Amino acid sequence: MNPETSPPAIMIDLIKVSKVYSPDVQAISDISLTVAQGEMVFLTGMSGAGKTTLLRLISRMEKPTKGMVDVAGIDVVKLPQGNIHLLRRKVGMAYQDFKLLAERTVADNIAIAMEVVYRPRSFIEKRTRELLEQLDLTRKYNTRAGELSRGEQQRVAIARAVANNPEIILADEPTGNLDAETTGRVMDLFAKLHRKGATLIIATHDRSLFQETPHRIIELRFGRIRSPHAEDEDDGVEAPADAPPSLQEAAQ
Amino acid sequence: MRFWAVVLRHTCRNMLLTWKSQGMTLFTVSLSVLIFSFFYLIYSNALHFGEELDDDLRLVVYLDEEPAPPLQEEYRRKILKFDEVDRIEFISRQQAYKRFEQQLGENTDVLTGVPTDFLPASIEVYPVRTLDSLSRIKRFSDYLQTLPGVLKVQYGKEWIERFYAFIQLMRVITVLSGSLLIMTTTFMVAHTIRLTLFSRQQELELLRLVGATSNYIRMPFLLEGALQGCIGASCGLGALLLLFNWITLQFAGPATINLLPLAFFDWPVVFAIIGLATLLCVVGSFSAIRRFLHL
After folding, report:
1. Most buried residue, B124, B133, B148, B229, by most Cβ within 10 Å?
2. Ordered domains of chain B (ranges, CATH)
3. Residue of B nearest to A120 (CA)
């Protein structure tokens, strides 16, 4: 078979995935989604639509209530607890709540991701400086993460997620606290990683990020993937009857 | 190699983060080891002393008459009938007199005019080492007393009874202090590790999220426990050595020191105590990890 004509390998594969939080909050229901290797996807939808839950399922921070999740050839649902590091080393995630260590320096926060895979000190330092430069944080190298503004913290979280050049990058609202110029820098960094072959899923409700993008946009609504043809029909839509209270509130 | 370098760095960081409780744990471990090894040192010295006494331990059976060779054979047969012995020696009245004379040394003139057969003949029975328990020696003595022609049996009964009671007491104290060592070290180490786990909870969660293996996360805590055990035990034994040297210096009189030849632990025992304390601390650390670190 000619490799040029063969379809790209599947990197993320979700089949009829549902997640119900206790007691009965349906976060996502029956989602099937395939993301090819090296693809960049924008995941959009209003607050409470299930974007974060979807990313958490892919990184095995949550287990689905139903369905199958396959990431980089790993069956995430059946992955034993002791082998989770195998998945997490392939996935770099920038969390919405940043998950930074407030008492540690910016450099330490970024280095931690590289330390766990035993990168040499010289490499860690070089890579940290490189990322901080790209994200306009060079001067903050030795600043404690707790002393940074939210926008700066967000960029440190992004730097840590991409530090190991992971195969998959999941970014949850990566530009939520950034001004236009810094947003541009972050998107440039993502574009660079994408060109290098990384698979990216960027969850955002900032339309400016994907308005003119050539990449795939997936919209979530009430925990389901919204059909691309339903754009006009859904204006002023009400939450389905079986949608959980939180999602109905989000819709209102 | 890099793994251990990282583990060591994390361990040092852990220990610095909770240095106060680390200090308390080290102090407790040292004190527990000091108490245990102090009593164990006394016990082992007493045992050593007992072994030396065993070499001289004999039952002296005084006879009313000097036995003729056939009667000597009869006594030998009856003694061996009760139990195996190391050796049996018949001491005639003349031999007893000569020994006494030698013991008097320069003062032999006190024996002037005393008949050479004034001391009774005796049989000296040297029990084999298996007869070292007091109850057996007592039973053996009681049996020898029943033999015909026996006036008296002597074996330093009171002294030996006291000595064995002391050995028993030391054995109990050593076991109790050993139990104290086990409880305090495991509890204190588990408590300190738990504090470290709580103080680093956020970081541990993050480590898991960025792809750290379970060993990467666990190992610094196990190493921390091992270091506490090793350093604590070394300090405890060091303190005991100082105490030992002080005691031997204080009691280094011409008479006492010869009576009680004290010796410190051999190197294998020192390493065994340090190894045991280290193992106990690792167990304490492991139990804390199992309870509070959900990987």
Report:
1. B229
2. 2-53+161-292 (no CATH), 58-154 (3.30.70.3040)
3. B2
